[in-house]
Design a protein that fits this description.
This protein is of the alpha+beta class. The strands form four sheets. The chain has a six-stranded mixed β-sheet with strand order 5-6-7-3-8-9, with helices on both faces. Strand 6, helix 6 and strand 7 form a beta-alpha-beta unit. Helix 3 crosses helix 5, helix 4 packs across helix 5 and helix 5 runs parallel beside helix 6. It is globular and about 85 Å long.
């Protein structure tokens, strides 16, 4: 059996967080400084500021084989980005070690390694050199990189004049096209132009078919199930499980959301503020019956005038399989464009879902950009209702389709 290209042994990264009460005014700050000075003189020294330890990654051990496509999943703060920075040798581990065989190309943040005063051409060569590529190697790939990024007209323009989309396209193109054995991608597939996302996915497919190893972080479980050959689930810096994609995704979804979603912060972009499960009358519920109409109420905000937005949901089965999707464009509903908070409600007809566990993904986007994607945002169970559909035993599948049946006497000659 071939040795792994990445071997992590009891890997850990610790941060020290300091605490000191913040002064509300300049006068308070000066008074506080004077008081600390007087106390220090009386005590013979300054009182040390209190600190906490934060283990962003702790006691991680795993192996990744050559040619694997690994989806790294977990909630915000699970340690995914920190782990990728350690693997990319951007951050030194506090404990344990990691052995990497081969060169790594990293796209951890849009434009990492770019200098805003340099042109797109100069940054392509600079970033390639950072990744360990020689000039001849970059020369061979240069035209392909520029064509993929769709920045031909602006390749000799300083990147500080690029739009965020141009910046992202060039950064991804450099990392994906240069010939490293390992490609590491952090969340770039979750933002930006929808067409470019498709190009990114196609490029990662090509990279994987070429035998290179890929590690990527995303909150989009559909992408994980499409691309990954293996999944790793992290929680609070620790390894929860690793293995077949479908099983790991199901484990993550089962613990990743509750019956109500509420945004922790506001991004300044169109986003969801809360979402909850409701009955047909709009009252909050915990678990609908399969025979009842029920739905989802979403509150979203548009911080600035923004025409052309769409809101949609995806209903996922327990293992992450998409059961159906629906959005405001399906019913030709044009969303208000004024800067304000809005409530949107979508109702699922009765006798649609069979009993089981489900998850809801939320998305708000326009023709060019995805502004907020939460997958999963809600998790809930559908309980069996008093229906003949079930017939006293579990029915296979996710949905009930009201099909038309006829039975008549056959005109064939009797046997």
């Amino acid at each position: 059996m071939a040795p792994p290209v990445i071997h992590a042994e009891r890997l850990g990264k610790r941060y020290i967080i300091g605490h000191r009460r913040r002064a509300s005014t300049a006068r308070d700050a000066l008074a506080g400084a004077a008081s600390r000075m007087v106390l220090a003189i009386r005590r013979g020294g300054f009182e040390p500021r209190t600190t906490d330890e934060l283990w962003a990654v702790k006691d991680l051990s795993f192996d990744i084989a050559a040619g694997e496509i690994v989806g790294l999943i977990g909630r915000n703060g699970a340690g995914k980005s920190t782990l990728l920075k350690i693997l990319s040798q951007i951050t030194e581990p506090t404990a344990g070690y990691v052995d990497v065989t081969g060169r790594i190309g990293s796209l951890l943040e849009v434009g990492t390694g770019f200098h805003e005063d340099l042109t797109g051409r100069e940054n392509t060569y600079l970033n390639g050199a950072i990744l360990g590529m020689g000039k001849a190697e970059i020369d061979r790939k240069f035209d392909e990189i520029v064509a993929f990024a769709e920045v031909e007209r602006f390749i000799d323009t300083p990147v500080k004049h690029y739009s965020s989309g141009m910046y992202m396209r060039l950064a991804f193109a450099v990392a994906a096209h240069l010939e490293t054995e390992i490609l590491v991608v952090d969340e770039v597939l979750a933002v930006g132009d929808a067409q470019f996302q498709k190009k990114c996915l196609g490029k990662i497919d090509d990279v994987a078919r070429g035998g290179r190893t890929v590690l990527f972080v995303t909150h989009n479980m559909a992408i994980v199930q499409r691309l990954a050959t293996t999944a790793i689930l992290l929680d609070q810096g620790r390894l929860v499980n690793a293995g077949p994609v479908r099983a790991i995704v199901a484990e993550y979804l089962a613990g990743a959301a509750g019956a109500r979603y509420e945004a922790a912060t506001r991004t300044g972009l169109p986003q969801f503020l809360l979402a909850e499960l409701v009955d047909a009358d709009g009252s909050r519920i915990a678990a609908p019956l399969s025979t009842d109409a029920f739905g989802f109420r979403m509150r979203y905000v548009i911080p600035q005038h923004h025409p052309g937005l769409k809101v949609g949901i995806g209903l996922l089965a327990a293992d992450g399989t998409t059961v159906f999707t629906t959005n405001t464009a399906d019913v030709s509903l044009q969303l208000p464009a004024a800067a304000q908070e809005y409530d949107a409600t979508v109702i699922v007809p009765p006798d649609t879902l069979l009993a089981g566990d489900y998850h809801i993904a939320l998305c708000i986007w326009d023709a060019g950009d995805i502004y907020d994607l939460k997958e999963p945002a809600l998790s809930f169970a559908v309980e069996p209702g008093p229906s003949v559909i079930y017939g006293g035993h579990d029915r296979k599948g996710f949905v009930h389709v009201a099909c038309s049946w006829t039975v008549g006497t056959s005109s064939a000659v009797p046997v």
